[in-house]
Design a protein that fits this description.
With 95 residues, the protein is α+β, with helices and mostly antiparallel strands. It has helices spanning 42-48, 70-76, 80-85, and strands at 3-7, 10-13.
């Protein structure tokens, strides 16, 4: 398939397919580029050890108007200590 549903109105697109095949079905596009790799069980172990904050997404997060601020926005809506992290500097040595 050219489009693979992810959640709600969010789908993953096969970028090797001619865009004309899906243009009528797509209203907004955001392309994510990068790579992260883990060995077998490594990510699960890191999550279990508390090395990652795993938070629920909201449907509009993928198309947020300010993607560079998305992480801070997600933290702010958590409340409590997690909301406080939204104001931490990117370089903690500057704190």
């Amino acid at each position: 398939d050219e489009l693979s549903p992810v959640s709600g109105r969010v789908a993953s697109a096969d970028l090797t397919v001619d865009p004309a095949f899906v243009a009528a079905q797509v209203s907004t596009v955001r392309i994510f580029r990068g790579y992260a790799g883990w060995g077998p069980g490594q990510l699960e172990g890191e999550i279990e050890a508390g090395a990652w904050l795993v938070l629920d997404a909201e449907p509009n997060d993928v198309f947020d108007a300010e993607p560079d601020e998305l992480w801070r926005s997600v933290l702010r809506r958590q409340g409590g200590r997690l909301a406080w992290l939204a104001t931490a500097p990117d370089d903690l040595s500057a704190n």
